[in-house]
């Protein structure tokens, strides 16, 4: 890698709690969510170039990742250049560790990392506020990938308030070979609610994160957190996917405190009672032929690696 390239690492996320309100006229849904950044990373290298180009490799299947303007990292670089009046280009090299279309915000992490990397490469020095504003324009989850840690998200998920979380939480992720499209999962939830599907709760009037969730995070107590975790999108993500329902049941049977679909899925996040329990759970899940990873959170947001 060239000495003048900038390397930025950004984390994937789990939604520990995800309350979804009724669809707004702009097509988005108001959220009350808690994000936690976990130790599964996207590495983005920004290399000086005259034009804009992109290459993607990784530990996960990257065959579905677009290399043109549909790629959120490419859009991030161009948006920053346009906003700051930069005439130079960039070649982005992305190494993915977060599953593609997995509900863990991998594409959003790429965009956040690209913003931080290009800001350093071009010396545009937008600062946290400037980068946050661009991030929010790129996608609902991009601001959180910049900030990392544990945070409450409201609005579209882009209005962030840091949440205090003590200690570390151990998660075991079960990956699925077959990704899910975020807009499709939101659309399915809307239809299930419209048809009065008994499994899909109506949107609550009062959309807020329960105090019990924040207290469990503050106390760093996985046993307290497990019973109050919730994801309104889960019912839509698992409908027509018996493999996901089976994985959720298996993980709990194998000793997880609880299991939840991450964001719009299909990745499943199991909360474990500490690192030892997580390793044992990971082994048991792998023994059934599943791809299982042990990660922990919270971890920092997008940052430059020397
Ligand atoms: O903002 P982002 O591009 O990540 O969102 C992808 C899609 O997910 C949106 O087009 C929308 O269909 C859905 N979405 C939503 N409400 C949110 C966030 C995302 O309906 N708060």
Q: Would you write up a description of this structure?
A:
With 306 residues, this protein is of the alpha+beta class. The protein has 2 domains: 158 residues, Ribosomal Protein S5, domain 2; 129 residues, 2-Layer Sandwich (Alpha-Beta Plaits). It contains 10 helices and 12 strands. Strands 1, 2, 3, 4, 5, 6, 8 and 12 form an 8-stranded mixed beta sheet that branches. The chain has a 4-stranded antiparallel beta sheet with strand order 9-10-7-11. Helix 1 packs parallel to helix 2 and helix 2 crosses helix 3. The two termini are 12 Å apart. The relative contact order is 0.19. The model has no long low-confidence stretch (mean pLDDT 95). Cytidine-5'-monophosphate binds next to helix 5.
